[in-house]
Structures are given as structure tokens and as C-alpha cells.
Amino acid sequence: MSVLVVGSMALDSVETPFGKRDDILGGSATYFSLSARFFARVSLVAVVGQDFPRKHIKLLENHDINIEGLKVETGKTFRWGGKYGYDLNVANTIYTHLNVFETFSPEIPSSYKDIKYVFLANIDPDLQQKVLSQMRNPKLVACDTMNYWIENKRKPLLDLIKSVDILFLNDGEARELTGELNLLKAISWIFKRGPKMVVIKKGEHGSIFATKDFTFCIPAFPIEDIYDPTGAGDTFAGGFLGCLNKYNKITEGTLRKAVAYGTIMASFAVESFGPERLLKLTNKEVESRYRDFQRLTRF
Amino acid sequence: MSVLVVGSMALDSVETPFGKRDDILGGSATYFSLSARFFARVSLVAVVGQDFPRKHIKLLENHDINIEGLKVETGKTFRWGGKYGYDLNVANTIYTHLNVFETFSPEIPSSYKDIKYVFLANIDPDLQQKVLSQMRNPKLVACDTMNYWIENKRKPLLDLIKSVDILFLNDGEARELTGELNLLKAISWIFKRGPKMVVIKKGEHGSIFATKDFTFCIPAFPIEDIYDPTGAGDTFAGGFLGCLNKYNKITEGTLRKAVAYGTIMASFAVESFGPERLLKLTNKEVESRYRDFQRLTRF
């Protein structure tokens, strides 16, 4: 049992009202993996440059993440610089240096091709499609995207989601993609384009998960000290897909659990800069916060 | 068993992206009453002018609201004009004509003075204090306020909340009152100033309820067609206090239920202009949506 993630690995420089870090480990595949590993074996596909610190690669290995699909290419690693103001829901990108990511063309190792749970993190929809075409018979395909692809690669994105089971979006992206302000209407719009399930992430306001059969609304787990929201969405996706992979059963019950685990994994991610908190996290803390979360929302 | 509300009755002119209405029945005491009446007998204190349509007064009576405390004064009724853009969380005030409300000095009929559940809707904190001083031995006092009083009557407001059990605020007001961006920290700040409970309303993003013993986070009940958010907060408060009054017991269980009922009452209020939907609402619809809401949030 394994979950495949194809996405970015990066060196991030992040500034929030609570501090600043330079060239720390980042990227969608990183956050996803460090979250999903609590529930399932993770197999990663990504690319880094020769400048990527060996210790980060070691660290993934030490956390039992399968890095057979990680390529080290000539050139520099993808770098992102971002700044958050007091509204931590809004990231202001200072720079994006694609570097080796610019020519990234994901190749799926043959040992990965039978993996049943697939997460296509936020990359060019053409590349997401290319990944999908290499998989033999996935059981559940989820994908994330962003405003850039919605604006510049709308047609490939709409083609891709025809074959995707679960679409992950934040609220702004859902509105932009569908032209619907109301999120329930945005979800109906998406259901007509392929996906059977939609996750709309609203940052500190929680998320809405919907299938054609039921809708599930969940608040965020409230945190007193949010240091850095970078990676929260991918961490959510990691908890979500990892949890489904663990149960290996797509039912209303496992889907609700998966959303709740995704939510609490994201709440850990934001408690420190980069993936620091995820790296120190224990299973016991995860389970304890899950129980707290049930109490926090029950009526 | 009865709930007292002291607040405004108004004639509102409202424009939203979905339509426009002029001089419709509005005001905090109106919304509160039309919501709380599903759970408890409501006794209202408010003032209107001679221009206030008789039919509105009849309507309150027909809905079994005790209007002994409603005064009809010489002059015009309080009028509010507001406009909402696509972000229905933000009301833009076009005008506020206080009219008879300017000299409003609430007097509590003696038949009201033993009422145990008291809601001080958003009016001048000096007047809220004046109401409170007339009550004999209330069991639970809740109050609402707004940015205007936070900015212009901070001292009287802080004096007032020393004797208030539950403070209702929206997220922006909580941040403004406390100087804390994080809502959990804002709640801790408030606990040090008197209230034992806090409700932070986040509009379409639900609310956070906290006592010193537990925190409860709840999403909004999602609605496809929101026509007019005016009055949602007072409708929430009406469902909340009405429910507590019905159970006449302040426990963790009844408080959670009260927050959930407040939330669904607010979801009805926004489904039409003014209080139209609340006027047509049945107990059966309330109970049915409550069950839907449990399913919507359970994991």
C-alpha cells in the first residue's frame, strides 16, 4: 500500500509577522510526503538541483519516504520566496525561480506504476496529465492546482480533471475556475466536469468537502500561534490521501475521517516555519489532536 | 420562561447583488425576536416612530412576541440603508437616520424585570448598562456591540462587560476590541474583562464559541442562495438565547446545542430579504435543518 505524490521540492524563503527563514526545505511534494507518511508509505516523484542539501534527501529517507522517483538534475533547485502579512491566508510571492523545475518532465519509475492512490500536486496540468498516463490502474486520483494554471492553462486543466476523482482547490481558485461566487454552486459546476469529489480549502476557516451524495463542512483546528502557513494545503492533502490509503476503502465514513485528519495535519504544519513541526510530530500527538478536534466540533 | 431583548426596530433599505428592498422591517430586536420565538416567549423593548406601519406591530403580536415594552414616539422610525457587494460578509452603510432612536432611553416594564435571560442588542453601552441596572436578578446576560462603540465608547463598554456573561462579537470587532489578531488570544483577553463566555461570529465562515472550560468551532450552514445577510447576527443570538431559555440549563451540552441552533436560524434569515424567511419558517423546518447540520459536520 502506497501513495504516489508528484510535485515540487523547493528551497523556500519565507517571511511572516513572526519571523523569517531563508532557503528552508519546501515544496508541495515535501509537505505532502511528511504528512501522508503518518498513515501510509509514500512514493515521491520530484526534481531538485545539485545545490539541494544532501541532508534534506537523507531526512526524507529517514522518514521512510520512497525517493526512487527523486531526480537530481544539473542546475539549481526550485526556489520560492514569499511574505505573509497579518492575514496569513494571503501569500505574497516575492520571487519564483523555477530553475531545474522549468524542464521537469516527470517520469514514473516502473515500481511506482501500480500505485493505487495518486496525488498530482500543483504543477502544469500538461505534466499532471503526463503522470496520469503512465499509471496503470489507479484507484483514486486527486489533483491540486492554482490560479496561474486556471488563467494560463484552462483547457489542459479542464481536460485533466475529466479523469480526476478529487479536485483540491482553495476558495478563491474555486471561484475563479467556475465563475461561481457561491461555493456550493462552484462545487456543482465542478461535478459536471469530471471529479466525483471536491475539497475546497478555506485556510483558517476550514474546508468544505463534497461528493454527489453528501457535503461535509469542517472548521480549521484553531491554533494560537501560527508561524507559517506555507504548505498547509499540501499537508492537508497528505493527511487526507494517506488516511484513505490506510483504510483502503472509499466510504462516507473514511472520507469524513480523511478530511478531519487532513485538517489536523495542516494545523500542525502552520505551527512552525517550514516542515519543522511535521518532522518532530509523533503519532500520539496526531491521535490526541484528532480526539480534541472531535470534541471541538461535536454537538 | 421568557427572554428579554432590548434593541432597535427599524425600516431598512437594503441592496445586494440579488435585489433591492426599500423600507422593510428591520432592526436587531426584530431579528432577535423572530428567531428566539421558536424556542421561548420573547419580551421586547424598543422604540419606533409614528410612521412605523401598524402591520409590523401586528405581525410581532401575531408571532406571540410580547410588545409591552415597545414605545411609539413622536417622530420618525430609525432608518438604515445598506449595500452589500459580492462579499456578503461586508455591509456598506449608506445612511443611518437615528430619528426617535437618538433619544431612546429604554425603560423596562415592571412585568419584565424578573426575566432571567437578557439580550442587550447592539446599542450604546450606556443604555445597555441602564437596562441591566433595571433587571432584578438575571440568570444570563448576553450583549452584542459594534465597531462604533468600540471606538467611541470603549470605557463604558468595558465597564458594561464586567457584568455580562456572554459577549457576542464578529471577528473584526473582536480584533479591534482586544488588539489581538488571533481569535483564541482575543477570547483570552475578553475572559480577563468579565464575560465567562464569548461568541465570535465569522459570517459565512461560522463561529467560535468559548467558555473557560471548552471551545467549540462550528461552520456556517452552507446556503446556495444568500439574498440578504442583514440581521444574521441577531438571528443567531435569538436562536442561541432562545434555546438556552428553553432548556433553562447552562451546561456544555445545552451551550453547544444553542450555538448550533443559532447557526441554523441565521442560515434561514439570509435566504430572503429582511425577515421574510423567518416569518414563514416552521418548527419542522428548523428541526429538519438541525438534523441536516449534524450530518453536515459529523465525523
Q: Overview of this structure, please?
A:
Chains A, B: Keywords: Kinase, Transferase. Chains A, B: One of its GO terms (cellular component) is cytosol. Chains A, B: This is Sugar kinase. Chains A, B: It holds the Pfam family PfkB. The structure is a homodimer of 299-residue chains. With 299 residues, chain A is of the alpha/beta class. Chain A is 38% helix and 26% strand. Chain A is built from eleven helices and 13 strands. In chain A, the strands form two sheets. The first copy, chain A, has a nine-stranded mixed beta sheet, with helices on both faces. Chain A has a four-stranded mixed beta sheet with strand order 3-2-6-7. In chain A, a hairpin with a 2-residue loop joins strand 2 (10-16) and strand 3. In chain A, helix 1 (28-36) runs parallel beside helix 8 (232-247), helix 6 (171-178) packs across helix 7 (183-191) and helix 8 (232-247) packs antiparallel against helix 9. The first copy, chain A, is globular and about 50 Å long. The mean pLDDT of chain A is 96. Chains A and B meet through helix 7, strand 13, helix 9 and helix 11 of A and helix 7, strand 13, helix 9 and helix 11 of B.
